[in-house]
């Protein structure tokens, strides 16, 4: 990894840590409940970020995915990845998540840099197929709509937005995450 890539990775991690440290850490926001009967075996794998409340550690990133896998010690490995079109490169952060309660409750604590961690709370889930999820961070300033595919049907997306609205999230601030062709912004014009 070159110095520029290392610097960007450290910036990404530092931003996440700072926000997490200032944001109240691991607790689920008041009035929200994590999904019960959660099956981490079915949840693991790659998820595409469809919409999010913008945050400093993902600002400017497109093609964002999160990949979860089970580790031998019972924790969950996390790989967040996104494309930075301004720099024309991928950024990624690796972390580890631990369940905050029983493994059947979708409430985890994710750490990208020990000893700091932040809450990851699955508050909505397609329980039949594990095809889409609604995820909150440690406060209502963090919300993600995830799907197993890079596109989520408009009616399903709208249903999740309405659910988030009822739970008190500022859904008018949600941003759509681009997937598909990657374009770089540079002085010489866009590149694919």
Features:
9 strands; alpha+beta; 3 helices; Lipocalin; single chain; 192 residues; 20% helix; 8-stranded antiparallel β-barrel
Description:
There is one protein chain. With 192 residues, this protein is α+β, with helices and mostly antiparallel strands. The protein has a single domain, classed as Calycin beta-barrel core domain (Lipocalin), CATH 2.40.128. 20% of the residues lie in helices and 36% in strands. The chain is built from three helices and nine strands; from the N terminus they run ααββββββββαβ. An eight-stranded antiparallel barrel has the order 1-2-3-4-5-6-7-8. Strand 2 (61-70) and strand 3 form a beta hairpin. The longest helix is centred in the first third of the chain and has 21 residues, at 3-23. It is globular and about 45 Å long. The model is unreliable at 17-24 and 187-192 (pLDDT under 50).
